[in-house]
Amino acid sequence: MVQYSQVHFDASFGALSDPTRRGVLEQLGRADASITALAERFHMTLTGMRKHVGVLEQAGLVRTEKVGRVRTCKLGLRGLEAEAAWIERYRQLWGARFDELDHVVEELTRKERVDERKKRK
Amino acid sequence: MNERSESDATPAKNPTTVERKSERELVVTRTVNGPARLVFEAWTKADLFRRWWVPQSFGLTLLSCDMDVRVGGQYRLVFRHEESTMAFFGTYLEVIPHSRLVWTNEEGDGGNTVTTVTFEEHAGKTLLVVHDLYPSAEAMDSGSAGALPETLDQLDELLVSLGSSVPS
Questions:
Q1: Is A37 near chain B, with CB under 8 Å?
Q2: Largest CA distance in chain B
Q3: Helix axis angle, A46-58 to A19-30, nearest 10°
């Protein structure tokens, strides 16, 4: 199943084909980071990382804020939407699953009560 | 403690929460109205498990479900999705009746995902905590072991729309 989804995921990421940019988005989904920290994490020069961040920023996936001498990168609105949507889909999947589990447990509970009543008679 | 208002006439469903705990961990929590021993039964008996694990809205058909619930025992679920079949399989690592289940999910290439489920009973209800530990951040981001194709298709659409405006 993992393999199946991998194919789809990679295809849809065609536009975001650069692995570093994908990595930066994933990284920012976990925590904000400075350009310097990102450059180190992805073993690149500051200039190289600035370019990647610029591309992501233009797409609204990332936004940056300069505080003092440090430029901090965060997920942009669209980046946050993607993150939230990902979690929401997962929540829906489990929600639907648990709703069905409720029915099964309700039935087991009812059955147990009936069995107990029978025993008492 | 209940954050939601619930009317007596139509008992609301208990909320499901999902938390991304770290780059490799996802935690799902949900309370089920029933004692832990019955909830545990629904997780460990194949004929019960198959009734809820793949809800009808998923558009998948569960072809078979085999579960040998004991430490070292295996499970294997086979689904049909459109023209193909997919298997979901692994090994039980811990089985503590009415309280804890741990299993691996072994169909991925990049290592096994480990799922831990705990059952905590409070006043006749059971708090379920499902903890997935992925082999890598990439494995988690590219589709969970529990995620199903149609869900991922929706995500694809979203990513395509997000990616379309990115200059290459």
A1: no
A2: 57
A3: 80
